[in-house]
Amino acid sequence: MAFKTLASLLAVVGTLQLANAAATRKVVCPDGVHTASNAVCCPLFAVVDDLQKNLFDGGECGEETHESLRLTFHDAIGLSPALARQHKFGGGGADGSIMIFDTIETAFHANGGIDEIVNVQKPFAAKHNMTAGDFIQLAGAVGFSNCAGAPRLEYLHGRPNAVAASPDLLVPEPFDSVTKILARFADAGFTPDEVVALLASHSVAAADHVDPSIPGTPFDSTASSFDSQVFIEVLLRGTLFPGNSTGNQGEAKSPLQGEIRLQSDHDLARDPRTACEWQSFVDNQSKMQSAFKAAMSKLAILGHNRHDLVDCSEVIPVPPRANSKAHIPAGLSRHDIEQSCYFRPFPVLPVDAGPATSVHPV
Ligand code: HEM
Ligand SMILES: *[C@@H]1O[C@H](CO)[C@@H](O)[C@H](O)[C@H]1NC(C)=O
Ligand SMILES: *[C@@H]1O[C@H](CO)[C@@H](O)[C@H](O)[C@H]1NC(C)=O
Ligand SMILES: *[C@@H]1O[C@H](CO)[C@@H](O)[C@H](O)[C@H]1NC(C)=O
């Protein structure tokens, strides 16, 4: 009896070891070039090449990259356990519903302008026979890898297609209060610190629709680098527009010419619940990378169980190293920083030499 138990125990151990070996052994892909940890990742290498060449203009951190990153968020955040608890459909998260049910979701106010990138991506997803949920997250991670200083994002594969459109009003708006924004993110499973980390995305971002008369206006002076300038520049003193009917809804003024500031970014940078976390990114590129990567790993699989997916992160290109150092823009000084974290001094930063310059559109 004891012997039999031992034998079956050994058999179990043997099976486990085999399973482990299978999980770590690389397979040679049919293209004869690549190896992958799982054969289902093999076709993705060709998808990545196609995207780099034909969607991201040869590997740029430009408009298509920015829009593709924004799309990962607007698809994924369509998930609400709170709605589900009221026995209403709470959305499917990162399920591609924004592409499959695009006539419904791109009409939501918060999704203004997102139809452009959905229309551009759709034929790529079809051509490569990928589910919309997988494709949106893959394209976001690949595009983002073109931004200097970016972390290499995780990419998990195997999201089934969405079965229904997300309900409206789940995507935060720039005129929402901090309380409303934090509550929306908490519903989707994110802490206030993770919200601030996710907003590092606005380091590689511009707005077309907040003020339609100045499309392509960036949120920081270095929109093609994933750097901390957005955390610095949003803290520069400016005039807040809310309640001013001649300002645009959801906009707060940046003192830098050619730069636009979201009211939500302005408020989150100054709110006691988020100000110290915001400031912590000002001179900490490695924290910005690791915190953003970790938060994106959660965002990219909202609505799914990570154990149902295959890790194909190896297909994501390695991003170029950071090419800028945290600084105060020329013509300004540390006195222009609106210190909002009262527990730690603001880091000492170099000031760019020369007269004030204006920020170029994307
Ligand atoms: C409080 C939450 C957020 C609000 C209120 C917000 C709002 C906005 C707005 C209004 C725009 C400008 C869109 C336009 O006019 O073209 C924008 C752009 C952008 N957002 Fe957010 N956002 C939030 C969070 C996020 C998150 C979590 C991500 C992460 C992936 C993200 C990524 C982007 C990117 C990459 C752009 C630039 C798009 C482009 O340049 O075309 N945002 N956001
Ligand atoms: C597309 O993918 C599905 C599974 O996601 C598969 O069943 C189907 O055969 C594929 N079609 C083509 C043309 O490769
Ligand atoms: C509202 O904003 C506009 C644009 O900057 C500015 O010219 C105007 O003086 C502001 N009005 C008030 C009442 O603050
Ligand atoms: C950067 O952030 C990490 C993680 O929070 C922290 O351990 C480290 O001390 C920070 N570095 C600086 C220079 O503040």
Automatic annotation (TrEMBL):
Cofactor: heme b; Ca(2+)
Annotated GO biological process: cellular response to oxidative stress; hydrogen peroxide catabolic process; lignin catabolic process; response to reactive oxygen species
InterPro entries reported for this sequence: Ccp1-like, Haem_peroxidase, Haem_peroxidase_sf, Ligninase, Ligninase_C, Peroxidases_AS, Peroxidases_heam-ligand_BS
Co-factor binding comment: Binds 1 heme b (iron(II)-protoporphyrin IX) group per subunit. Binds 2 calcium ions per subunit.
Pfam family, one: Peroxidase_ext
Record family assignment: Belongs to the peroxidase family. Ligninase subfamily.
PANTHER family with a match to the protein in the record: CATALASE-PEROXIDASE (PTHR31356:SF66), THYLAKOID LUMENAL 29 KDA PROTEIN, CHLOROPLASTIC-RELATED (PTHR31356)
Name assigned to this protein: Peroxidase
UniProt source species: Trametes gibbosa
Organism lineage: Eukaryota, Fungi, Dikarya, Basidiomycota, Agaricomycotina
